[in-house]
Amino acid sequence: MQTASTTTVLTISVQANRAPTLNAIANMTVNENATADQVITGTDADANALTFTKAAGPTFMTVTTTNATTGNIHLAPGILGLWDVRGDGNGHRQWHTASERQQGR
């Protein structure tokens, strides 16, 4: 009785999905009953399309995706007073009213 055998070498390459990066977002200030917009951009090392969304912030702020690497922050507070957004040095944004800013918050 004869036995036949074949050896096959199979190489599997797995590339981990790397996290995208968001470029710096500038501080924004908007007066009541006015609007402000800021283009935001990011990159993905794996060439995946990015989706920009708002994780937190005031109801008058919207974040939209424009294309695979660009989005927009739109502020439209209506009549609420002056609001601004400042970085806290840890990559987070803090929202303040004009009266909070005057009180040193």
How many structural units, i.e. domains? 1
Identify the overall geometry.
rod-shaped
Major sheet details: 4 strands, antiparallel
Figure out the total of helices: 1
Order of helices and strands: EEEEEEEH
Q: What is the overall pLDDT average? A: 81
End-to-end gap = 88 Å
What is the beta-strand fraction?
Answer: 25-35%
Count the strands?
7
**Biggest sheet, spatial arrangement of strands:** 1-3-5-4
Rg calc: 24 Å
Q: Would you identify the regions where 5 or more consecutive residues have pLDDT less than 50?
A: 100-105
Which structural class should the secondary elements be placed in?
A: mainly beta
Helix content: under 10%
Architecture overview:
The protein has one helix spanning 98-102, and strands spanning 21-22, 28-30, 36-43, 61-65, 70-75, 83-87, 93-97. With 105 residues, it is mainly β. The protein has a 4-stranded antiparallel β-sheet, with no helix packed on it. Residues 100-105 have low confidence and may be disordered.
